[in-house]
Design brief:
Layout lengths: L1 H14 L4 H12 L4 H26 L3 H9 L6 H29 L1
Helix pairs in contact: 1-2, 2-3, 2-5, 3-5
Amino acid sequence: MVFFYLAGCALALVYLPWWGLGVVCTIGGLLFVKPLWQDLTIGLCLGGLLWTGLSFYMSAQNQHILYHRFVEGAILPLNPLLLTAILGAFHGLLGSIFGYMLGRWRSKS
């Protein structure tokens, strides 16, 4: 199960735009029957870690130019990587909840 999430999210984020993480979390929540708290934890942790890692990788490719402009200009009240982690965690969480609800709906019918 962990291999599916990691491999699926890595492939989805390479070949799909930003919504690839939500698709993989939805499919994982649909295929693997788990309690709701496990789906929430997987969505939060996986989304936050993967989006932060991907944004750091993209930022490192351009020598953190945009990151430094945000920090030096005081445009954002938070660290841009922390803000990205929060948004990625929320994205993964919503995908996991949607997959969990689809799985429950499928098992009832």
